[in-house]
């Protein structure tokens, strides 16, 4: 091998090695220059000051009457007397949801149940023992049962027949032959 061949081989290896090192370094420098140019072109950002926290608010007092009003109910005993031309004659209250109220108008008396529309346009909302509650013009109104004392006979402890002791004993039907 000649010296020129050895030098050519060494120089080509050196050039190749320097090229392999210079290529990534050049790409990194080019990317750094691009980033610097981008950041200098951005407008200056102002530093934001932190907002002050609002003072804690006092808790609102629980108001069941307000909630009842929102749901369409009137507070207990605050239902307005109804302006309907009806009178409550009787109320039949059932625990199984079959309550009925006898309402009398100018021409007729009829039984109504909860949810029925009345002749004046109101709706029967609740039936209670001594009154009915109507929904009329967006509010509750009540029809009160007239005084029951003038229609019923007074209850007396008069001559109620006394129970006589049984003199014969009956056997159940199932035990008979």
Automatic annotation (TrEMBL):
Q: Which residues cross the membrane?
A: 12-33
**Which Gene3D superfamilies does its entry note?**
2.30.30.830
Type II secretion system protein GspC N-terminal domain span: 84-145
Q: Which UniProt keywords apply?
A: Cell inner membrane, Cell membrane, Membrane, Protein transport, Transmembrane, Transmembrane helix, Transport
Alphabetized Pfam families for the sequence: T2SSC
Query: Where does the record place it?
Result: Cell inner membrane
Keyword Transmembrane in annotation: yes
What is the protein's given name?
Type II secretion system protein GspC N-terminal domain-containing protein
Q: Which organism is it from?
A: Pseudomonas lundensis
Q: What is the lineage of its organism?
A: Bacteria, Pseudomonadati, Pseudomonadota, Gammaproteobacteria, Pseudomonadales
């Amino acid at each position: 091998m000649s010296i020129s061949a050895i030098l050519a081989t060494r120089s080509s290896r050196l050039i190749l090695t320097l090229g392999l090192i210079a290529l990534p370094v050049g790409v990194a420098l080019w990317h750094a220059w691009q980033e610097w140019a981008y950041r200098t072109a951005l407008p200056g950002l102002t530093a934001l000051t932190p907002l002050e926290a609002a003072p804690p608010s006092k808790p609102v007092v629980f108001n069941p009457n307000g909630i009842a009003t929102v749901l369409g109910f009137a507070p207990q005993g605050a239902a307005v007397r109804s302006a309907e031309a009806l009178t409550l004659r009787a109320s039949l209250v059932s625990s199984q949801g079959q309550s009925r109220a006898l309402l009398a108008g100018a021409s007729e008396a009829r039984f109504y149940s909860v949810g029925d529309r009345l002749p004046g346009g109101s709706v029967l909302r609740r039936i209670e023992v001594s009154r009915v509650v109507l929904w009329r013009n967006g509010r509750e109104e009540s029809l009160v049962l007239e005084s029951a004392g003038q229609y019923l006979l007074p209850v007396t402890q008069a001559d109620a027949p006394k129970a006589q002791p049984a003199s014969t004993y009956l056997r159940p039907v199932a035990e008979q032959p």
